Amino acid sequence: MSNAFDFPGGIYPPERKQRSNQSALIEAPLPSRVTLPLQQHSGQPATPCVAQGDTVKVGSVIAKREGMVSSALHASISGTVGEVSTTQISIDGDGQDAWLRLPPLEWQYAEPHALLERLNESGIVGLGGAGFPAHIKARVVERHTIDTLVINAAECEPYITADDLTLRHYANEVLEGAQITAKLCGAQHIVIGIEDNKPEAIDALKQALTNSQPVPVELTVIATRYPSGGERQLIKKLLDLNVPSGGLPADVGVLCHNPGTLLAILHAVRDGQPLVSRTVTLTGEAITQPGNRWVRLGTSVRELLEQTGLNTSELHQVIQGGPMMGTPLLTLDTPVTKLTNCLIAATLEELPPPPAESPCIRCGECESVCPVALLPQQLHWYARAQDDAKLERYHLFDCIECGACSYVCPSHIPLVVDYREAKSRIRLQRIEATKAEHAKHRFEFRQARLAREEAEKQARKQARQAQQRRPSNTAATNSEKVDLRGLRIAHAAAKASVKKAEKTLARVAQEDPKQSLDDLEMQLATAQENLKAAELQLAQAREQQSSEESS
Ligand code: SF4
Ligand code: SF4
Asked: Subcellular localization, per the record (predicted)?
C-alpha cells in the first residue's frame, strides 16, 4: 500500500455512496422484452444480421462489428426478434433464458490472437463509461510496449458503487481477467488503484492477491478525492508517470481497465459468455430499494426503476452516470446499454438545478481545483469568444470534463458545458479539414496512378518493338525492363499509408470515443483500396518481367 505521488487540484463532493452499497449485488428480474441499440460503444454502429421473426438464444449474435472500431452485439434474452431498424433491434422473450455460449478457452495455453478474437466476437467494450472496444484497446501492443496494467477501481464519482460491489463479490475473477489482459498486452506488472472509501472491496482484493499469478499484482489504496479515477490522474498517483498532452496511457507504457471490464473479459474467455449483461448502480432518493443489480442489456430503465420502488411523484430527474459527468435522461423509455453504469433517480431537493449564472469574478477557484492544471477561467473566455487558436494553446483537449471547475464556481458558470460545445465545434472543423485533405490526397494518388500506368504502357510497347527488332536470343536491356523498382516503392508507400491510417483511427477513437470516425474509416478504406491496386500492379509487372526473361 502506498500513496506517494499526487495530481493537482481535485474536490470533495458529498459521496452519497452509502445509499447503494449497503446490499448485495443481485440479478435484476429477467425482462420480457429488450431493445438493443446498435451503437453501444465508441466507433461505428454494429450491422444487424437477424430479421424479424428469427429465434435467438442468449448470446446469439444479432449485429456484427462494422469497420475497424466497432463491436458485435448479442441477444441478451432468448426469444423472437421483433423490430429491426437502422438504430436498434428488439427481442420478445420466451422466458426460457436459453443460452448459446462459445467454447471455453484455457487462457493460460491460448495464443494471444485467439484471446483477441474472443474479445472481438464477444462484444467486450470498456464498461467504465467510454465503451471503447476491448479487442482494439488490446492491439495497442502493435505500436507500444506495455509495462503495467492498471486496474482502475478508484470509482471516484459520487453515488456510483458498481465497481465496489463487483470487487466485493468477484475479486478473484477480476484479477483473473487482469491476468488474461496482462498476457494479451505483455504487461509485467498489475497495479490496482482503489480509493480508501471501499474497505470491503479492499479486503476482498487483499485476499484475492495471493492467488493471482503469473504477473505480480500490487494493491495501492489512495485517499478519496474527485477525480482520482481519471486515467491520467490515477496513473500519476500510482506510478508517478505523466501521460503527455494529447497522448494516451500507452505512451508511458500503461493500459487501464476497470474491474467490470476485466470480469467481462474473464467471462468471455473462460465461460464463452458474450457481453449480455452488466452491473448497474440504482440509486437516488426517488427509489426505495437502491442497490446494484446485474441487468440484461436492453432492459427498459423505467421497468428497472419501478422494480426498485420508484416514487414517480418525488422524481425530478434520472441521471445516467454520476452527478458530475453523467447526463440527464430525456425519457425513462430508454434501454440499459453497455455504457450504463449508474442510474440516479433524484428528487428536486437532492439534485436541484443550478442557480442562474452571473459574471466571472476572477476568483481563481476553478484553477485551484483543476486536476489537469488547466486555466478554466481563460478557457471559458476563449470558448465563448470562439477563439479556437487560443483554446488549442490553452490545451482545451486535455480537459477531462470532470466538472470540478463548474462545481466550485461561485458564479455558477456552466464551464464544462462551454468546453464540450467548443470541443464539438473544433472537432467538426477538423473533420472538414481532414475530408478536404483526403479528397486532395485521392486526387493526387489517382493522377500519379494514371501517369504510372501510361508510362508502363509505353514501356511495354517499346519493349515489344525492341523485341521484334532484336535477334530472338538477345535479352532485353535494363532500360527496356518494366520499372519494378518504382512499383515496389509505390507498393511500400501504399502499405505505409494503410498502417498510418489504422494507427490514426485507433488513436483518435481511443483518445476521444465520442468523436465520429466516419472520415477516418473512409480514409483507411481508401488506403486499403490503394494498397490492393499497388499489389496488383506489382504482381502483373513481376509476371511480365519473368515472361520477358524466359522468352
Ligand atoms: S471559479 Fe468561476 S468566477 Fe471564479 S474565476 Fe473561475 S470562472 Fe470565474
Ligand atoms: S472540467 Fe476540465 S477545466 Fe474543468 S476542472 Fe475538469 S479538467 Fe479542469
From this structure: Cell inner membrane
Is residue 536 situated within a structural domain? yes
Looking at the fold, whether 502 and 541 belong to one and the same domain comes out as yes
Asked if the structure places residue 21 within a domain, the reply is no
CA separation for the pair 106, 125 (Å, rounded): 21
For ligand 2, pick from 156, 399, 415 the residue to mutate: most ligand atoms within 8 Å of CB: 399
Q: How far apart are CA 285 and CA 487, in angstroms?
A: 69
Residue nearest to atom 3 of ligand 1 (CA): 360
Which three-class secondary structure state does DSSP give residue 381?
Answer: helix
Domain of 543, in residue numbers? 431-471+479-550
Q: Whose CA is nearest to atom 4 of ligand 2?
A: 405
Per-residue CA distances from 297 to 278, 327, 388, 442 (Å): 7, 19, 39, 42
Identify whether residues 176 and 80 lie together within a single domain.
Answer: yes
State whether 335 and 397 are in the same domain: no
Query: Strand 342-347 vs strand 277-283: parallel, antiparallel, or unpaired?
Result: parallel
Q: What is the pLDDT of residues 162-200, one digit of tens each?
A: 999 999 999 999 999 999 999 999 999 999 999 999 999
pLDDT in tens, 254-308: 999 999 999 999 999 999 999 999 999 999 999 999 999 999 999 999 999 999 9
Q: Give the pTM.
A: 0.82
